[in-house]
Specification:
228 residues, Undecaprenyl pyrophosphate synthetase, alpha/beta
């Protein structure tokens, strides 16, 4: 969800104003994804690298996220959305915010309408390192390690591989997001800044995805009309 800062700067506003404006887009896309039949939606809210931002901005983000979680918890519960939080291991995450994450996870645990994963204090490299440590600590012999077994030691191993990554604002990089799970994801890079991103933009990205020819390293099956 990229472009909050640039959205604010173009309006001669502080960067925090862009983060505030992003709330509308978050709820709009959650609702659009649910209505479109998306079963798994992940939002990259805060990376392990985002701790390098100025202290006042980080503190503002922590307060904002807590307010958004508390404000929209009833809606998420009513919509049948199961909520998860990927990351949240750094001791700098405020205890009150971590508690709110846990409370929302518990509150929506029995929901089955859609699974919403919020990546907060998330880093794909860290997840891979932690999975490797878990395998080592379990005493698994090296020659028994498979991709499937390794994936079982990642956080939330029931999460399917990512099908589509949407990165707003036109930026084209991975930024340490779910590195294991995006191995064969399709990517779309809409120019809209995140605070301006709406349901119609999201549905356009889904249409683009549906038009892609996903081969997973193979070739399409031949038809009777194929000559080569």
């Amino acid at each position: 969800m990229d472009g909050n800062g640039r959205w604010a700067q173009r309006r001669s506003l502080p960067r925090t104003a862009g983060h505030q404006a992003a709330e509308t887009a978050v709820i709009d896309i959650i609702e659009a994804a649910r209505a479109a039949g998306v079963e798994w939606l992940s939002l990259y809210a805060f990376s392990t690298e985002n701790w390098n931002r100025p202290g006042p901005e980080v503190e503002f983000l922590m307060r904002l996220v807590r307010r958004v979680v508390r404000k929209h918890a009833p809606l998420l519960l009513a919509r049948g959305i199961r909520c998860r939080f990927l990351g949240v291991t750094d001791p700098r995450v405020p205890h009150a915010l971590a508690r709110d994450f846990d409370d929302l996870t518990t509150l929506t645990a029995d929901n089955r309408g859609m699974t919403l994963t919020v990546a907060f204090d998330h880093g794909g490299r860290r997840d891979i390192v932690e999975a490797a440590r878990s395998l080592i600590l379990s005493g698994t012999p090296a020659d028994e390690v498979t991709e499937r077994l390794f994936a079982d030691h990642l956080p939330y191993p029931d999460t399917p591989d990512v099908d589509l990554v949407i990165r707003t604002s036109g930026e084209q990089r991975i930024s340490n997001f779910m590195l294991w799970q995006v191995a064969y994801a399709e990517w779309v890079f809409p120019e809209a800044l995140w605070p301006d991103f709406r349901a119609s933009d999201f549905l356009a990205c889904l249409h683009t995805y549906r038009c892609r020819d996903r081969r997973f390293g193979g070739v399409p099956p031949r038809t009777n009309g194929d000559r080569s």
